[in-house]
Each structure stands twice: as C-alpha cells, then as structure tokens.
User: Fold this.
Amino acid sequence: MPPLTCFKAYDIRGRLGRDLDEAIAHRIGRAFAEALPARRVVLGRDCRASSAALAQAVARGLTEAGAEVLDLGLCGTEEMYFATTHFAADGGIAVTASHNPIDWNGMKLVRAGSAPLDTATGLAAIRAAAEAPLPPPRGGGSVRDVAAEARAAYVAAVLRFVDVAALRPLKILVNAGNGAAGPTFDALADGLAAAGAALAFERMHHNPDGTFPNGIPNPLLPENQPATAAAVVAAGADFGVAWDGDFDRCFLFDHAGRFIPGEYIVGLLAEAFLEKEPGAAIVHDPRVVWNTLDIVARGGGRAVQSRTGHAFLKAAMRASGAVYGGEMSAHHYFRDFVHCDSGMIPWLLVAELVSRRGRPLADLVAARRAAFPSSGEINFDLPDPAAAIARVAAALAPEALAEDRTDGLSLAFADWRLNLRPSNTEPLVRLNVEARGSAARVAEGVARVRALLGA
Assistant:
C-alpha cells in the first residue's frame, strides 16, 4: 500500500479520487478499530455527495474488525463528539470535509471520552495500520441505527446551557449554507418551542444539499458574508447566525448585518460564563488576546493560553478545568459539552445574553471593538515562512515589551500587538494585529509587518 496522503496534522482530508476513496475509507475503518483498539464506534457523516458511500466503507471496515458501529447518519461533527461519550464508545468518526472544496472529503476522529487523537501516536498508529496489509476479517461486528436516540440526547444536552425562561422574544436569521446544520437546528428549535421559548426563526439555505447550490458553506470568507448580512436586514432580525458545512463553527451578524469577528464573540461568551461561574478558567488562543484578557480579568476569571488548534485547546481545557475555551476562528469549546466544540451552543448563549441585557448584540460588542480593534487574520503566501518570521523577529523583538512563542511569534508593545504564525498545512504566514483604542495603530502595525515580510 503506498503512503496515504489524506492523513493531516489533526484529521483526515483530501481530494476525492486522488487522496481519498471508498477503498481507503474501508482501510481506515479497519485500522481505527484495530489500532485504538475500538469495540464500539460512533459514526456520522455530513451531506456531501460522497459522504454516505465513504461512511458505508468505514462501517464495513469497522465491522470486519469486529466493532459495533453506532450509526448517527447525517449529523454535525459535534453530534459525533457528544454521542461518543453518551454511548460510552471507544471512539467516534465523522465523515466530513467541513468547508473544503466540493471535490474533497475527510474524517474527524476521537477516542473514548471524545478526546482528540494524539497526532504523534493515535493518528500515526491508525495511518500505519491502514497502510499495512490488512489482516483477515475478524467478523462479529454490527451496525445499529441510533440516530433518533442520539439526537434527542444531544438536544437535551445543548438546551441545558441556557435558561429558556430568560429568553425574550427575538427574531433570528439562520443560514445553514445547505450543509448539515438544518435538521439538527430544527430539532433544537422544536425543543426550544416545547420549553416555551419565544424565539422566531427565519431560515435560509436550510436544506442539506451536497451540490452546495449557494456555494461551499464557509462564512469566514468575506465574499460569503454579504448574503447572510442582507438577509438579516431584510428579515428585520435581531441577529443572524451562519454555519460551516459540519456546523462545528458558527458566525454571528448583528441586526444591521455587520459581521462580528470571532475574537469578540470569545469575549462575550467568556463574560457570560464568568457571570454563571465566577473565578472560572477561560482558555484562549494566542492570535488576538487583549479583549479576552481584559474581560476575564474584569470578571475575576483565570485566562489560560493555548496553541491554536482543536487538539491543543481541548487538552488545555481538560488540564485547566476551564468552563469555556474559544478561538478567533469561531471554534468554541465547552467543558460541559464533553470538552468539545459546538456551533449550536454559542448562538443560544448569545440569545440569552441579549435577552438578559435588553440591548442589541451590536451594542454588546461596540465598546469592545472600539477598545481593542483588530485586523482580522491576513494571509501571506511566502516561499520561506520561517525566514520571513525570523526577519520580523529580528527587526521588532528588540522594541517589544513582551515576546511569546506559544504559537508562532507574538510581540506586545505599549499600544499594539502582533501574532505571526506559519500555517500547519500551506506555505502561508498568518498575521493578526490588535491595538488599544486605535484602528489607525492597527493599520500602522499591519503595514510595518507587511514591509518586513516583503509581501
């Protein structure tokens, strides 16, 4: 078996017919069960045209290794995370390519307790087993449909994050992007209605459709945001929500259709949790931090910095006992949701916060955006990322008040800060700049770093 190119740093993904196909998916299923080892495995999939067949191939591999497969069918990645712990399974697999191009697919995998697989051992062991000659089928495996039971338990778990009685009448525009979010959202909406929540929803691009007639669902891309923004305004909604393909990320828009960068949502959610659990630990990534640090300090909490990436955030969550962790890329992690990320819990918490404060979402973030403006992540395609970062460090580190290498290069000055880090998967350098109270200072910082990068 030639080396498998679909194994990446944190998960499995690749181009169909080149990096990933049903035969490879079958081998990965066998390898997952053999390498962990796993006798009971939760399996779900997104709505891509190739996902059902790939999931069937994974299930065949698992059952040949003697595993019991608990089949969730069409679901979000977070439903797989939740179900792995709920059913006390030995592991879980979601067949998904999230926001990758339409001719890609992949898998996200966890071990028992919904814990991420360690890159150096877990994924490496599965890859080695998948590339090795397959042993004879052990047999004795089975497939059990648990979709209805799993979703009911998931809805109950998500709704426990909010005080439904505190929700005032709000109109919310939701854009599922024709990804997997629609059916799960409908189940949550039914649960909210049954509990007496006075929320009204305007649905957009709601039905799952693997052809993605309205484009690949990736609301982080600026070119994908105007459609949701316009729909929020047209509907007269209090705020808007848009998800990516497997809805483990959600993105928020205020009533005027303005996109709210993820770092300000991290701050909002940190504030919400510290009100409920004073003194709690809050995990954050190193890219844009000043707003979060200020909010955590004001709330009497404990800020814990982690490297960017779900495996690192989840490890920091577990080690610190943090109630919540957030990344500016719109991944939000919750201790009481098996220490995993969810794209449904954040908008519910925002709805509760807006209700309790009696103020629009725009007002809740306006002061924070003014106090700590940021650039958003800027990508530079450079031939030698390491050399480019070294040039910036050599020029600017002597002026800095603090230097941090948790993830790439972070330099803090009196009134501005930068984080510069190489991509894990592409020849890119990613820059974030933030400042204290001055958007002009952000622009100056970006210009200075851009010149040093030679971009």
